[in-house]
Design a protein that fits this description.
Blueprint: E1 14-19, H1 28-36, E2 41-46, H2 61-66, E3 71-74, H3 88-96, E4 100-103, H4 113-122, E5 126-128, E6 147-153, H5 160-173, E7 178-181, H6 185-191, H7 205-212, E8 221-224, H8 236-246, E9 250-255, E10 261-262, E11 265-269, H9 273-284, E12 292-298, H10 305-318, E13 323-324, H11 330-341
Parallel strand pairs: 1-2, 1-3, 3-4, 4-5, 6-8, 6-9, 7-8, 9-12, 12-13
Antiparallel strand pairs: 10-11
Helix pairs in contact: 1-6, 3-4, 7-8
């Protein structure tokens, strides 16, 4: 059975904690919540030295609580999933101000004695989103009913979550039976359910993906948030397990046309979109022989409107698929949604 929605991992009104981050790529949880659950975000809290901002009002924990916040969310995914010691005093102050702490880090919050003691003293919760269920079985590999779309990428951190959310909302707007299936901490905070796929022991990743997206009615569509990249030196393993367990009928390739190499690996050139399509089909056929690409999603966030449209049109001329930036919408995105509904 899929995880139930609206559990403790669903974020209500919150304060986004940015720590002392100086690289915007590490703050994708904060940006994801701002962009997809902005009505729940009352402001941000930054430590001295931070150069990244969400553009939300700067608030103290007590000011945020006075404005209705119930939790402070660690909006930064630090390298290695750790919480630096320099963050702990501010997080403890948030507990004293009456806020729960929500974290998507690999390290558990209760491993910090200061936070564990402060939570108990002030009657607040320490909520670790990146905690998979304990009873995951290995994958069966058996076909299951329903339709599935998986977002894959030429790299990590370039728009797979945003694309999956945009596809889900776009299809829902067409009155279709669709569910966004979150596989990362930010998506889980937004949706209130999901599977933190990169926290699952490797033998059980495909099984976790089967749990995430169970058998459904023939007309139901699951849009599954992708993770990593099949070409990434560090994260290809989780991408492969998710691909096998998801058994997608369709996939959308996500790509940043301004990026030249794998994030954090300057010696690893970015693969071509065509290479990703070919590799995904070859590996995906292990569990779904009918897998096919239905489109390309470009991340043109760093471009002005004219440059973005030029990039979309250039890729569309080269590729036999709809190409769009889901965040810009428009006719290009509508064609990508149309492709989600085409039967093979």
């Amino acid at each position: 059975m899929a995880p139930a929605p609206n559990d403790a991992r669903a974020v209500g009104r919150c304060l986004l904690f940015l720590g002392d981050v100086t690289e915007s790529g590490f703050a994708k949880t904060a940006f994801g919540l701002r962009d997809w659950a902005g009505e729940r975000c009352v402001g941000e809290l930054r430590l001295p030295g931070a150069t990244v901002t969400t553009g939300l009002p700067g608030l103290s924990a007590r000011q945020a609580a006075a404005q209705g916040a119930t939790a402070i969310v660690i909006g930064v995914a630090a390298p290695g999933g750790t919480i630096p010691a320099s963050w702990v005093p501010a997080l403890a102050e948030a507990l004293a101000a009456g806020l729960d702490i929500v974290s998507g880090m690999h390290v558990r919050l209760d491993q910090f004695a200061v936070l564990k003691d402060a939570a108990a003293r002030h009657g607040r919760r320490l909520i670790d989103v990146r905690t998979p269920p304990a009873d995951i079985a290995i994958a069966s590999g058996r076909p299951r009913a329903g339709r599935r779309i998986l977002t894959v990428g030429t790299d990590c951190a370039l728009g797979k979550k945003y694309t999956a959310l945009a596809l889900s909302r776009g299809l829902a707007a067409r009155s279709l039976d669709v569910t966004f299936r979150a596989t990362g901490q930010t998506g889980i905070m937004i949706a209130g359910s999901g599977m933190p796929i990169d926290a699952v022991v490797s033998d059980f990743v495909a099984g976790a993906a089967e749990i995430l997206s169970p058998a459904a009615a023939p007309g139901h569509i699951d849009v599954i948030e992708g993770q990593g990249s099949l070409f990434h030196p560090a994260f290809a393993g989780v991408s492969l397990g998710l691909l096998h367990g998801s058994q997608p009928d369709m996939f959308v390739v996500c790509h940043d046309p301004a990026r030249s190499h794998q994030l954090g690996y300057p010696g690893s050139p970015l693969p071509s979109i065509e290479s990703v399509i070919e590799q995904t089909i070859v590996l995906g056929r292990v569990t779904n022989p009918a897998i096919r690409c239905i489109g390309v999603a470009l991340n043109t966030g760093g471009m002005d409107a004219a440059a973005a449209q030029a990039a979309i049109e250039a890729h569309a001329r080269r590729l036999p698929y709809p190409v769009a930036d889901p965040m810009r919408g428009g006719a290009d995105f509508e064609r990508l949604l149309d492709a989600c509904l085409e039967m093979p």
